[in-house]
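Action item from last week, closing it out:
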Amino acid sequence: MASAPELNAPAGWLASRWTRLNGPRRVAGVDLARGLAVIGMIAAHVLWIDDLDIADAATWVAVVEGRSSILFATLAGVSIGLVTGGRTPLEAGPMHTARMRLAVRAGLLWLIGLALIATGVPVYVILPAYAILFLLALPLTGLGAKPLLMIAGGLALVMPVVQVGLDAAPVWSTAAGQIVSPLIGWHYPFPVWIAFVAAGLGVARAGIGRPAVQARLLGCGAALAVLGYGADALNGVGPASGASSFWAALWTAEPHSTGLWEVIGSGGFALAVLGACLLACRTVVTWIVLPLRAVGAMPLTAYVVQLVVWAVVATTVLGSAGDLRGFRDLEPFWPMTLGLVLGCTMWALLVGRGPLEWALDRAARAVGRGAPRDADRLSG
């Protein structure tokens, strides 16, 4: 006959997995926003998407283009902020340990990104840029909310101007430039995108669990989105002229243009989505969206798995992982998305932390002792 501890073990394990996904150490709204960002990036990769026309609901799916990855970068800043103390930056000793572990994670993310590029899947893999952004954020982790948000605003206004010149550099048309570009994630250029990470870090320092902060996020983010997209609609610069001149390249909100209006509009959109997710998860909605939160609790695993599945299926069915048109014609979005949501939900409830998140955490913890209490908030 089994002993009492043995009888209680399965229930205790399942309860601990449930608590880990829904307990006070997780921020449900951040997980929801991360889950939406991952699924949005899948949609941007595999769906045939027409240009966004607000008057035509059939084109609204185009909202995922560019904005999903910017949301992902903003949430990276939030996660870094949470792991380095939340509202109050960690003291010197623990902060040093946290920064060392972030650096280890950055190196591993870069290597994983290179492995994904090697699969031949025809997407711009975000992980190399993500790794560089982690490193660039390290000097910012000791700052409070106000200076971080001011830095984010300054970078958002200045760096798009600089980026136009950087993008025009002759090196990118050379063989060396074409090799370096994916290795540093230049499709998500870190000189501009560090603004999104700084904004997310500032939000974490402002107290992301406070209802007032969440409401301001929604309101201010929506206002920035209206400003950015409204200015783009009024400036008369169309997609075809986006790179025809310095000013045309700068005054645009086209996805992945890193134009000024994209940075303001899509950055605001990311903040508004985060605020909406945080507020929604203060209600019964948090239980309705639990599967999406499970995806957001293991975003690295989810991102990597969908690209690996893509490579395997495309190679098997089409004979090449690089056949983008052929893969999109297979209409893989819903099978991939539903499979990912179901798999992440079952894993989170039955096993716990995502496998890649667990592996990165173990590697990072090898750096030293004294882990910040909220370390698991970084990536699930």
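Closing note: Confidence is low (pLDDT under 50) at residues 1-9.
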